[in-house]
Design brief:
Layout (H helix, E strand, L loop, with lengths): L1 E5 L2 E3 L5 E8 L7 E7 L6 E7 L4 E3 L7 E5 L5 E6 L8 E11 L2 E6 L3 E5 L2
Parallel strand pairs: 2-11
Antiparallel strand pairs: 1-3, 3-8, 4-5, 4-9, 5-6, 7-8, 9-10, 9-11
Length: about 120
Amino acid sequence: VQLQASGGGLVQPGGSLRLSCAVSGRKGTIDLLGWYRQIPGYERKLIAVITNDGAANYADTVKGRFTVSRDSAKTTVRLQMNSLRPEDTAVYHCYAGGQTATGWMNYWGEGTLVTVSS
């Protein structure tokens, strides 16, 4: 599975940004799609995931402000980010996970930088 994120950039506090991720490869093995983010000097943290059934879960820090979505073919996963705060500044990585014959597999793509600053 290959993941390529795009859409990062500079945005003012209170603004919005939408990230997109192109998913390719063995999509039939994917059970979860979502997004991690990593602030320099800190561990990468899962912030949003969506299942094949369309159920979404969010980290408390972004709940109510971010929305994860995907298309039915699992070719694209998006993250709509509203009411952005300076503490949302991070590198955002697209994520896919799923059960394979050899066990659970996690995949991450190259990140895209989001900077929230005035």
